[in-house]
Amino acid sequence: MLQFTMKALTGENIDLTQYAGQVLLIVNVASACGYTLQYKGLQALHAQYAPQGFAVLGFPCNQFGGQEPGAPTQIAAFCTQRYGVTFPMFDKVEVNGHRQCALYKHLTTQHTQPVAAGPVQWNFEKFLLGRDGVVVARFRSHVAPESALLVESIERELAPPIP
19, 64, 79, 140: least CB-packed within 10 angstroms? Predict the structure, then answer.
């Protein structure tokens, strides 16, 4: 389970255990990146699959090329005005290094092998978690939200278990 409390862009603390039983796509995002257009696809995934127990969680990060320099209010305004983002957005985090947040330490640690071990390489890396909170897939930045590989992985996790 994701037993972490993270700060939302709006300032309140969010207990991630509230997402227990849902399929999650955790993404480190940035407003000034070549992959920023992926916000559109992420929002589309969130809107399409949320009724089935799916959520995208966005975590702004400024570690890669300084591509997320804004304050929380600026990030929120950019995401909603430019891309209509309604999925949960969290405060800026560090995804690598000595100030890596606990969530990303968990996502990238060796015990998640072979799926997700190792540092995040760039903005818009995606971690897919099953309903049990376990990382089931990891997609590098170049994998678009609408790619068949990602969509099929989400649908597989959302499918009812075979008896």
Answer: 140
